[in-house]
Each structure stands twice: as structure tokens, then as C-alpha cells.
Amino acid sequence: MTEKNKRSIENVAIRIAIRHIIRHLLFAFGLLFILRILFLLYNWEQFSNSGVVALTETVIQGFRFDLKLIYYSWLPLLLLDCLTLRSYWAVRSIQQIWVAVVCLNSGIDTGFFAFSKVRNGREILMFLDHSNNISLWTYVADYWLFAVLIVILVVLASRLLRNWRADWPPMKGQRTLVVLTLAALLFIPMRGGFSGRPLRSSDAHLYVRNELVPIALNSTLLLVEQDIPEIPDELTASTVLPGKSRYYGDDSLFKPNFILIFLESFGKEYTGLNHNYTFNYTPNLNELMAKSLVCTDAYATGLRSVDAVPGVYSGVPRLGSTSFTKTPYAFNRLESINSLLGNIGYSTHFYHGAESSTMGFHAFLKSGGLDRYQSIADYPKSDQDHDGHWGIYDGAYLDYFKTELDTMRQPFLASVFTLSSHHPYSIPNEWKDSFDQGSLEIHASIGYTDRMLAEFFKKAERSAWFENTIFIIMADHSSENAMHAYRTPSGKYEIPLLFYSPKWIQAGSINETTGQTDVLPTILDLINYPDSVYTFGESIFDADRKSLAMHNDNFTYHITQNGWNYGVSQNDLEPIFLYDKINDPNCLINVLDKNPDKASDLDSLLRLKLSEYHTRMEMNAFN
Fold it and tell me: Phi and psi for 179 in degrees, rounded to 5?
């Protein structure tokens, strides 16, 4: 073979390799683009108010995050393919696995977004975790059409890859250099730009509006990225613990019973507190509110049950991109309502009609001094009253809980966590057609649990312990919503929270902002706890309270205070938005530039509380 022919073959091989890389890159981009469009269309109601122009810009910006995923996971397979220049079966197999993983992650995230309201990183693995009682097949059955669509997409993509065979002679040094140079040239755009650090998912706020961040993000990239945020130095620079302990024992010790009732997924929208934005499904809870002290502007700490338990029992907000119990801080020493009340003679009990491993409740509560945890294993008629998914129907379990209360030594702190209003929203057959079906699948189950709650109170009122008991009733978190006002950065966290005791609590309302982290200090305040205790939240009876709720949501820290919602970037604390919720309940108008004084006040308070939280967590001195 002449030298000219050798060079010609060499040039052809180089062109084939470059075309091979470009074709596969376009394939990966196309797949991720399709998955992003499916996410947007499936959750269209969540974003429909944003406008076509803003949505289009967001989809385009999403390519930046796709580039990073492609560069670090897809491109290495292409280079291996080109450097061997064979139809390498192992590479093809790995590529098909990549397609399946990306489609599965995006499919789960797409279907779950209506409930979580954020893109999920490693928490998407909860579907495979032992703490999730629901079978994967239940989700497939409920979302079968979308599941079929994802399977079809995986099959078509895999077939396409198998047809793109590359069969050429082994590559020599010159061609190797060309391919590696191409990869090097792609490094800068796929890294996200000329910045000294790579693009991170948390940078999405730099390019799109806050409410559109989930569209720009990529489920698989979130899965592999580190979930624990980098904490700005200014938040942990203090050598003196910020915040202070409060002494509650101003009067003689008062020891009523406390019963905490967690209503699964009872978002504020479903109740009579929804400002008449839409129909409500809780007539019995509404009636109880008329006899209670109601916190009308209350917030959950997170969007999952696993966030509520640390928030209520230890006053720990979720201020990381993953649940507190999945962070290194989870091993810190924490006081809780259980340990503090146990110190003064209370017996403490927790009832949940699911398996004891569910959501990690048991481990967290036991570490916080809980005396007795009751699960489905302790329920005497589990075969008869099991809903087929999570555990015991609420009606049967609340009956059981009331019977158990009759046997408890007083004073007690007893808690019950309902479950029937959790997906897949199982209701006993005899109640199937008794409740308004509403516009969402959850609505009928909300009505069922609401009725069972009323039945519980009818029976409880005849018990000897009732008169000396204070009930604290709240949702663990919200769920899917029909109204845009309850999908906003703070609206998605709004829940009912009420204190009920005909003897000890005067009916009325507290209209200032409250949250689950305020429950612990409120209980200590009610009983005149005889010691000093640091709490992140504040008693609702404290005249000097700051009245705030804080969250980590879509890579922002944000604070809500009496009708205002202010957010900053998780990475650098740069301001992102300020919403006037009273005049703009849908949070469509960012008034950050129009209200600099309010933004400055909220920024100072946000930084103060973040510093308080992170410093105490870093120093293992939260309580």
C-alpha cells in the first residue's frame, strides 16, 4: 500500500471517528431533551403560569446541565469505543444501561414531582429503600401509561444504539490524538464555561427564574452529585454559639397530657384555612378549628414525613438539600420533646400503623428518648385492617390508639401518625363512595381521615384523661395541589397547625408565621419547663418571637415572615427573590428591587438564623 493510500485511509478513519462521536452526542442530547419535555408536559399545571417565552428559555438553559452529565458519563464510553475502533459489546451494553438509568430516574422524578415539588437527587432511591412500604409495582400500576412510555423510549434508544456499529482498523497515534483533542475541546463547554469550578445543579438560579429551576435540572445529574451543600464560611465562622437558651420555668410546673396528631399529607389547601381559594375537604377539622387556637400561617419543615419528625420533636428544620436524617448531622446529640418531658416524669409513646422501619421514625425517636414505639407489628388485627400498601386504615388505627390511651400512666406524651391519605390513598370499601372525590385523587382520602378524626374525638371526650389533655394537630407536610398559591416557594410548605384543649387552651387564632419547629418550645412554655433549653424555633406565646419559617428548596435558602417570602442562593447567599404573598399569593411578581429595605431586613434575619443553625450543628451543640 502506498503512503498516499495509507494517509487516505487514516483520514477516513478520523472522519468516521469524529462523526461517530458527534452522532452519539446528539443522541444523548436528544434523549435528555425528550425527557425534559415529558417532565414539563406531565407537570404542565405546575408551570403553566410562567409563559411560553420563559419556559422555552428554561428548556434551552437545561442543555448546560445535560452537557455536564454527558461529558462525565457518556463521552468516556464514546472515547473507549473510538480508541478501540471495534464494535465493542461491553461498551454497547454499558450505553444501554446508561439509557435505562437516565430514563428510569427521569420517569420516577416526573411522576413524583407533583408530591415532592422539587427535583429529587439521591432521595429518589427511597423507592428502593426498605423504609418505603409501597411496592414498586403499585407505582407502575398507578402510572402505567407513563411507565409504558418510558419503556418504549428505552427500547427505541437501545435499538438505535445497536444499529450504530463502528467497524474499522485499529487506531494509530495520529487518530488517537485527534479524538482526544476533540474531547479536550468539549471540556470547557461541558464543564459549564470558563469558571474555575464546574457547573453545579445549584447554579440553576443564575440562569432561570426560581419557580422554573426544576425544569432546567437533570434527575440523573442530581443523583450523582453530592447532596450536602457547601456551607459559606460566614455561616460557621463564629467561635461563640449564636442564639441563646431560654428559661421557661417562670411559674410552677404544669403537667397536662399532650397528644400530637400528625395528619399525613394534609396540605393547607384541603382545609378551611385555604382562604376560599378552592373547595375544602375537612368539615370535621374545620369544626374543631373553631374550638382551637389555630396558627393560620403555619409551615412544615419539609416536604416529606421524614422531615416532620425531627422538625417537631427536636425543632430541627430541613436546611440541607436532603432530609436531616440522611446528613452527617443526624449523629449529633439532640434533645427532643420525648427526652425533655421524660426528665420530669412523662411517659412517651409514638404510634404509627406501618412497619417500624418506615421513614426511619423509630431510630430517630428512640435516639431522642422515646419510651415506647408502636408499629403494625403491635396491632392485634393487622390482617383484617391492613390497607394492602402502607399499613392499618386510619379509622381502625385511631380506635386502637384511643384504647391504648385509656391504659397509659399520666402524664403522658403520646403521638399518632395517620397514613390513609398517603399515596395510593386507600379507603376501606364501606367508605369508598362517602366522600367528595374532588379534583385530585388524594381528596377522597383526606375526607376519610377527616371523618375518622371526628370519630376519634367523639370517643376520646368520654375518657378520663381527656379533660387534662392538650391536643396538637398538624399535617406532616403538604401533597399535590390544585391551586398555584400552594405550589410557590413557601406555599408548598403551608399546613394546618392547631392547639386544642377545652380546659386549657382558649380558642382563637395566631396570624403571625409559625412552623413545626415552634412546637417544641411551645410545649416547654405551656408547662413552665424548669430548665434552660436552646430551641431553634420559638414558643407561639412568646411576645418577642420573630415569627418565621425557613426552608431549603430547589437550592435556595428562603425565609417566610408574615406575608413576605425572601430567598437567596444556597451557594453564595446572593438574593434571588422577594414575594409579597398578601398582595400576590401566586408569587408571580418578584419585588426584590422594589422593596430593598424589606429585602435587607429579611436577609439579615435569614443569615442570622442560618449561622445559628450551621454553627451549632458543626459544633454539635444544637440543644
Answer: -65, -45
Q: What is the rounded distance in angstroms from the CA atom of residue 323 to the CA atom of residue 132?
A: 15
For the record, the C-alpha cell of 406 comes out as 385509656
Cell numbers at 238, concatenated = 463564629
Element (H, E) at 408: none
Rounded CA separation 310/325 (Å):
8
Give me the pLDDT at residue 196, please. Answer: 46
Q: How far apart are CA 612 and CA 149, in angstroms?
A: 47
Separation between Cα atoms, residue 243 and residue 535, nearest integer Å: 9
Mean of all residue pLDDT scores within the chain: 85
Q: Which three cell numbers stand for residue 518?
A: 415552634
Measured CA to CA in angstroms, residue 391 lies from 137, 267, 418 at distances of: 17, 21, 10
Residue among 94, 119, 117, 92 nearest 36 (CA): 119
Amino acid present at 355 = E
Q: Would you say the pTM of this structure is higher than 0.90?
A: no
Confidence of residue 586 (pLDDT cuts 50, 70, 90): very high
Residue 543 to residue 617: CA distance in whole angstroms: 27
Please report which helix (H) or strand (E) contains residue 69, including its range.
Answer: helix 52-69
Q: How far apart are CA 239 and CA 618, in angstroms?
A: 11
Please answer whether residues 211 and 558 qualify as being in contact, where contact means their C-beta atoms are separated by less than 8 angstroms.
no
From 372, 353, 258, 364, select the one nearest 309 (Cα to Cα): 364
What's the rounded Cα separation, in Å, for the pair 544 and 547? Answer: 9
Q: Judge whether 617 and 536 are in contact, CB under 8 Å.
A: no
* 160 close to 34: Cβ distance less than 8 angstroms: no
Distance from C-alpha of 526 to C-alpha of 344, rounded to nearest angstrom: 14
Give which of 512, 507, 513 is closest to 471, Cα–Cα: 507
> How many CB atoms lie under 10 A from the CB of residue 163?
7
Which residues, other chains included, contact 119 with Cβ-Cβ below 8 Å and sequence gap of 6+? 109, 113, 213, 214, 217, 219, 222, 554
Read off the C-alpha cell for 165.
456499529
Model confidence over 428-442: pLDDT tens digits?
999 988 998 988 999
| 353 closest CA partner among 386, 309, 308, 384 | 386
Side chain identity at residue 477, one-letter code: H
Reported as a pLDDT band with limits 50, 70 and 90, residue 193 is: low
Alpha-carbon span 344 to 459, nearest angstrom: 29
Give the relative orientation of helices 75-84 and 173-191 as an angle to the nearest 10 degrees. 170
Name residue 469's beta-bridge partners: 257
Indicate the helix (H) or strand (E) that contains 414: strand 412-417
At 493-549, the pLDDT tens digits run: 999 999 999 999 999 999 999 999 999 999 999 999 999 999 999 999 998 999 999
Q: Is 553 exposed, middle or buried (0-12, 13-18, 19+ CB in 10 A)?
A: buried
**Total residues belonging to the chain:** 623
Query: What is the set of domains in the chain, with CATH numbers?
Result: 3-224 (no CATH), 258-494+507-547 (3.40.720.10)
